[in-house]
Write a structure and sequence with these properties.
Elements: H1 3-13, E1 17-21, H2 25-38, E2 42-46, H3 48-54, H4 56-70, E3 74-81, H5 84-93, E4 97-100, H6 107-123, E5 127-130, E6 137-141, H7 148-152, H8 158-168, E7 172-174, E8 181-183, H9 192-201, E9 206-209, H10 217-227, E10 229-234, H11 236-252, H12 263-281
Parallel strand pairs: 1-2, 1-10, 2-3, 3-4, 4-5, 5-7, 6-8, 7-9, 9-10
Helix pairs in contact: 2-12, 5-6, 8-9, 9-10, 11-12
Bound molecules: zinc ion.
Length: 287
């Protein structure tokens, strides 16, 4: 099944597919192990910074190797790419989903770039995600507060979003209704009524929810049930588990210089996050 088939299955069966950001090989292994343990479809996604660090062709090969080795289907997504040339490189390299993030470019230019990318992507069977409202926050553990009023400005306006989706023909729309990137001391709540309105404005387009960290499990379930969200991006909670696991492992093994030997515990900490998300998203047992 390709990405589109998976998204259709998710929509009709009311589950979401986790789009897990991958920073390094340990997190990569944790996502593979979580997907296998839960028999779940997964997306692996790489942001601009993560692509720079790991390099495009390495990513494609890693994913292909894991698919062959374990007989699983990993949906490879380019996450929040602000650059048309990089999007086109990823289309050529073998990604299955593309998220072009034109939220910081003027609206008309965003539309034009989407229109240029989409035929190339569709020709290869890829799906394209678009965005107009810039999501608040960043994928980190924040000490400062973020309030509902601060982020309200960037919320999706259903009519404007409908216009964008109709003009461009994007397959997935990144909707913002209280979801934020990152984990905060007090996580903002999501606006379910707004999500309902977004869903009703363009019922045929897939919806994604960024900011799958920090948000409560019950709100996630509501977003899937009511908003038919089919793709949920997760990053910060995995980064947190990795870092805390690594700090603990280094402390407990002060004389070990073969670092790979202390990594299994670090990986299993990240895997626990992946498996928990898969359970909440309802995608366990779908493969
Ligand atoms: Zn995001």
């Amino acid at each position: 099944m390709n990405a589109r088939n998976w998204l259709e299955k998710a929509k009709s069966e009311k589950f979401a597919i986790g789009a897990f950001n991958v920073d390094n090989l340990e997190i990569f292994k944790a996502v593979v192990a979580g997907a296998l343990a839960k028999k779940s479809p997964v997306m692996m996604e790489f942001s601009d910074g993560e692509v720079k660090f790991l390099e495009l062709n390495n990513i494609v090969d890693l994913v292909k190797n894991a698919e062959e080795e374990y007989g699983i289907n990993i949906l490879l997504n380019l996450d929040h790419s602000p650059d048309q040339a990089k999007v086109e490189e990823a289309i050529e390299a073998g990604f299955e989903l593309i998220h072009y993030d034109g939220s910081k470019t003027p609206y008309e230019e965003n539309v034009e770039i989407c229109k240029a990318i989409i035929p190339k992507a569709h020709e290869k069977g890829l799906t394209v995600e678009g965005e107009i409202d810039h999501i608040a926050g960043s994928s980190n553990v924040h000490k400062e507060q973020i309030t509902f009023d601060e982020i309200k400005e960037g919320f999706t306006k259903p009519e404007k979003a409908k216009e964008f989706v109709t003009e461009t023909g994007v397959d997935i729309f990144a909707a913002f209704f209280g979801n934020v990137h990152g984990v905060y001391p007090v996580q903002p709540s999501i606006d379910i009524d707004l999500l309902k309105k977004i869903r009703e404005a363009f019922p045929d387009t897939f919806l994604s929810m960024h900011g799958g960290s920090g948000i409560s499990d019950s709100e996630v379930r509501q977003a899937i049930e009511i908003g038919k969200i089919v793709k949920i991006n997760v990053n910060t909670e995995m980064r947190k588990a990795f870092r805390e696991g690594l700090e603990k492992a280094l402390k407990e093994n002060p004389d070990e210089y073969a670092v790979y030997k202390i990594m299994p515990d670090v990986i299993s900490g990240v895997q626990k996050v992946v498996e928990h998300k898969i359970d909440v998203f309802g995608s366990a047992g779908k493969i």
